Amino acid sequence: MISRYSLPEMAEIWSDQARYATWVKVELLASQAQTLLGRVPPDALADIRSARVPSAERVAEIERERDHEILSFLTAFCEEIPDDSARWVHLGMTSYDLVDTALGYNLARACDLLLDAVARLRGVLAEKAAEHWDTVCIGRTHGMHAEPTTFGHKLAGFAFAVDRAMRRLRAARDEVAVGTISGSVGTYALIDPFVEKYVCGELGLGVEPAPSQVVARDRHAQLVQAAAVLGACIEQIATEVRLLSRTEVREVEEGRTSGYQGSSAMPHKRNPTGSERLVGLARLLRGHAGTMLENVALWHERDLSHSSVERVVLPDAMIVAHYQTTAAADLVESLEVFPERMRGAIDETGGLAYSSAVLAGLLADGTEREHAYRTVQAAANGATDSGETFGARLGAQGIDAGPLEPERFLVHHDVILKRLEILRDMGHQA
């Protein structure tokens, strides 16, 4: 992923140098396990431990000749190890014992970073929702005015969506945090299963239960699917901000720096570019999710068609998801809200937003449904066409609608607030 959409703590996990450091970690643990089994001499283990992580430049230099990254890495790693000790490195292992076990470790680390960012976003949404719980605004269906709600209610829906995304990601982390050190076709023919148990245990990983030389790729597909769903949830937040930021609506606005400039030609512009960026990144994640599904079906025990895909998709997906989630939390945290504009949007239609309450009142008084609906509809249409208030048109038909205020729609709103408070408490405890 380009640096523009990369945060350093996540990008570092996916650098070539960090990957080789993890490969060294796996090789050292495997050698330790073999020493415990009596198969690698203690003196050789000491020599192996003393070797440094090879540089990415040195591995690339060797790979240009050999066209095999893992063998090039092993050659570079063993250059500082005496030959009598170097022969014990990678004992009984095949390439993807190293690659997939290290990948599981790095994916777990990446997931932990992403989960921290998601927890922050959930908390920011919940806090902002509580702050604006009583900020009345018009609800919209099909893009049109519906009934009154509150801005806090909108944000609560987003907070719960992010919470669900967080649970999906936790489940996906459990699935990808596995390794395998089982040999060429996963039969442990040349390596004791103890090595796998020891290495994966030290790395905090589970074990692929029926390895085929590689870890099953449905695991990685599940992770990127979960990241894509998270991205779609964030896209929903960003889309709402974009719609409410339009000039004729202006119920919210993205936080701005003092030096903000929105257009090279039109100095008045205050564009929701942060939200637009989040929408675009969600599209990237959806594309990656589909690509990872193509990686699940490999030939027989394995092939290498997945490798080139994963080198691009897994780092990009995790980096994008982490950046998008962090940026979304920043956006919500700094969001400017204009309660007077929200209330004005309710009032500007002269009471039309209360038509459902009037209809319910007529039905409760015993009016036949079709007649009640048509009566209220006629008053609403007449108010729209004439510019009169809805209440005036109802009065002309002999209907006393009572006070037309948004609070009559919020009598049970505390039910949702109690649910939100539970979510807030989860964030405080974390």
TrEMBL record:
Coiled coil: none annotated. It catalyses: N(6)-(1,2-dicarboxyethyl)-AMP = fumarate + AMP; (2S)-2-[5-amino-1-(5-phospho-beta-D-ribosyl)imidazole-4-carboxamido]succinate = 5-amino-1-(5-phospho-beta-D-ribosyl)imidazole-4-carboxamide + fumarate. GO terms for biological process: 'de novo' AMP biosynthetic process; 'de novo' IMP biosynthetic process. Residues 254-273 are annotated as: Disordered. SMART domains: ADSL_C. It is an enzyme of class 4 (lyase). It comes from the Bacteria. This is Adenylosuccinate lyase. The lineage of its organism: Bacteria, Bacillati, Actinomycetota, Actinomycetes, Streptosporangiales.
